[in-house]
Write a structure and sequence with these properties.
By secondary structure, the chain is of the alpha+beta class. The protein has a single domain, classed as Orthogonal Bundle (Cytochrome p450), CATH 1.10.630.10. The strands form five sheets. It has a five-stranded mixed sheet with strand order 1-2-10-7-3. Strands 4-14-11 form a three-stranded antiparallel sheet. Helix 13 packs parallel to helix 17. The model has no long low-confidence stretch (mean pLDDT 93). It binds protoporphyrin IX containing FE (HEM).
Length: 416
């Protein structure tokens, strides 16, 4: 048996990767950006320029020499996601392609379809149902145990930041003593776009840890283990290439952890700020899935996904060339009045799944059903165990902020 993979934390022990994007990256300044997005969309559903710069943020360091446009309309965003003949994911290579490696998000067909099929099977309905009966409720309840008796809590730092991440960590069957470091590095690696020093450090440390871990699982697969299953899976009689397997796990922490953390936090934030709708959900739990869909539409946690055209195109009168960065702004598409009547109103009875918070088309989120299940479990567990859950009126109201990933910084609640 080989040596156990070793995980190493940031050299600078004081570095806080969880707040770095909002503090160091200045993204915390961006609060309710929907009125400005609506104004721009009305002028033209394709914004000719760098939308990050428009909001006063620094340009993405990984895409400095590139021209930027931003798609703000639901129709345009959907078109760019679904027309894979015309639009490519290769533009992810300088950022995602560096911090996760050759993951499915960076691929176009036929490579994408080939690998995606296998990864999608790993998140199939049977698997998810099994997790929904065991690991998911177990780790959600374990976290609630920590504050239930107190009568009040701050749910970001005590709950939402951890439950999706703990799930992925447990799914990968990694040692529990590595968990906090792993969490910090996973957050750290996506900082590459504005903080290369910490971004690279995190990326290298995670890559080496996961490479050793995958190699160990290939040499000695664990029966029934998710990671061993992927590490030893075959397509057409051949094992998946090492870099694709390792990239998949490098991506999973962020794709499944940060997104669900911000997603669930934004749903809770919306309900806490609309107490009559929170009350309705408490009274009628069939509204839980609807509240989740509406929360994700109303304040979509993933702000920007990327594409580039394979040949010159014109969208809404704007010419776009291969190599240009198209920023698909999901929160803008999800509040397009052409797709959602009265789009700025948060209304859980709308409950439509037609929003683009999980993307559209062949790259649509692989984990969407898992994310929905996790969030529904988390919501039901909170309401079962804290029936008097409400906003803590003595504390500032929660507010969604951020740019690349959006969510509230705090969720102060009472339940006494
Ligand atoms: C609320 C939670 C989530 C949100 C809002 C979200 C959002 C998204 C979006 C917008 C995309 C499309 C990216 C693109 O087209 O360029 C995506 C892709 C992806 N997501 Fe999620 N996600 C969530 C949860 C998860 C979970 C729980 C997992 C797995 C554990 C996951 C794994 C993935 C993967 C692997 C892809 C790449 C798919 C591909 O390129 O074919 N996500 N996600």
């Amino acid at each position: 048996m080989g040596a156990m993979p070793q995980i190493q934390d940031f050299r600078d022990a004081a570095f806080n990767p969880f707040t770095a994007a909002k503090e160091g990256g200045g993204e915390g300044r961006i609060r309710d950006f929907h009125p400005e997005l609506a104004k721009l969309r009305e002028q033209n559903p394709v914004y000719d320029g760098d939308i990050k710069r428009h909001f006063g943020l620094d340009a993405d360091l990984t895409l400095l020499d590139v021209r930027h446009v931003a798609l703000l309309g639901a129709r345009e965003v959907k078109e760019a996601c679904t027309n894979v003949e015309l639009y490519s994911n290769a533009i992810y290579m300088p950022n995602l392609g560096v911090y996760f490696g050759r993951s499915v998000t960076t691929m176009d067909n036929p490579e994408h379809a080939r690998f995606r099929r296998l990864f999608q099977q790993a998140f199939g309905p049977k698997q998810i149902a099994r997790w929904g009966e065991g690991i998911i409720p177990r780790m959600i309840n374990r976290l609630i145990d920590g504050f239930e008796a107190r009568g009040h809590a701050e749910l970001v730092s005590e709950f939402t930041l951890f439950f999706p991440f703990h799930f992925i960590h447990e799914l990968m069957a990694l040692p529990v003593e590595d968990r906090d470091t792993f969490h910090r590095l996973a957050f750290g690696q996506i900082l590459l776009t504005f903080d290369p020093e910490h971004g690279y450090e995190a990326m290298e440390k995670l890559r080496s840890y996961l490479t050793e871990t995958v190699t160990a699982r290939r040499a000695a697969p664990i029966d029934g283990d998710f990671m061993s299953m992927i590490a030893t899976a075959e397509i057409d009689g051949e094992r998946l290439p090492d870099d694709v397997v390792i990239s998949f796990f490098r991506q999973l922490m962020n794709a499944g952890g940060d997104t669900s953390y911000n997603g669930f936090s934004t749903v809770l934030c919306a309900l806490l700020n609309h107490p009559e709708q929170l009350e309705a959900v408490k009274q009628d739990r069939t509204l839980v899935p609807k509240a989740i869909e509406e929360g994700l539409r109303w304040n979509s946690p993933v702000c920007m996904i990327s594409r580039t055209p394979k040949r010159p195109v014109e969208l809404a009168g704007v010419r776009i060339e291969p190599g240009d960065h198209m920023a698909l702004i999901l929160p803008a598409a999800n509040r397009d009045p052409a797709a959602f009547p009265d789009p700025d109103r948060f209304d859980i009875h709308r409950g439509s799944r037609a929003h683009g918070a999980f993307g559209f088309g062949s790259h649509i989120c692989i984990g969407q059903h898992l994310a929905r299940l996790e969030m529904a479990h988390a919501m039901n567990a909170l309401l079962d165990r804290l029936p008097k859950l409400r906003r803590d009126e003595s504390m500032p109201p929660p507010e969604v902020s951020g740019f690349m990933l959006r969510g509230p910084e705090q969720l102060y609640v009472r339940f006494d």
